[in-house]
Amino acid sequence: MAISLTESAAGRVRQYLTQRGDGVGLRLGIKKTGCSGYSYVVNYAESVAADDIVFEDKGVTVVVDAQALPLVDGTEVDFVKNGLNEAFSFRNPNVTGECGCGESFNV
After folding, report:
1. Residue at 103 is within a domain
2. Domain with 22 in it: what CATH number?
3. Helix %, strand %, coil % for the chain, to 5?
4. Domain presence at residue 76
5. Is residue 23 assigned to a domain?
6. In whole angstroms, what is the distance from residue 104 CA to residue 40 CA?
7. Is 100 part of a structural domain of the chain?
8. CA-CA distance, 98 to 28, in Å (whole number)?
9. What is the β-pairing status of strands 52-57 and 60-65?
10. pLDDT digit string, tens, across residues 42-56
11. What is the pTM of this model?
């Protein structure tokens, strides 16, 4: 089981954590929502809980709740800039469908 980061995503997380001056890494989770079932939740991890699974990629710690891991296992996290818009994006091999607006997915 693993979560990976592109160089762009790893660089963004490192830059943000340096600017903040604290934090452990990136926290990746999911929540039930939208027309397809789930959406990604991305935050900066302040700490690691007992039920978290921790990955390390490109010098960045990635923290995932153990319950979410089966739904996001194998996901590659990218950070994409398009004009003035910038956001994390996900390539999740477990996804079987997405809603039309791209805000939610199902597995």
Report:
1. no
2. 2.60.300.12
3. 15, 45, 35
4. yes
5. yes
6. 8
7. no
8. 18
9. antiparallel
10. 999 999 999 999 999
11. 0.86
Residues 6+ apart with CB under 8 A from 9: 26, 60, 77, 78, 79, 88
Instruction: Give CA–CA dist 80/12, Å, rounded.
Output: 10
* Domain span at 49: 4-94
Residue 11 corresponds to which tokens in the numbers above? Answer: 């660089």
CB 22 within 8 A of CB 61: no
What does the alpha-carbon distance between residue 56 and residue 101 come to, in Å, rounded to a whole number? Answer: 31
Task: List, in sequence order, the alpha helices (H) in the chain.
Answer: 7-20, 69-72
* pLDDT tens digits, one per residue of 66-102: 999 999 999 999 999 988 899 999 998 987 776 655 5
**How far apart, in whole angstroms, are the C-alpha atoms of residue 98 and residue 104?**
6
Q: Which amino acid is at 57?
A: D
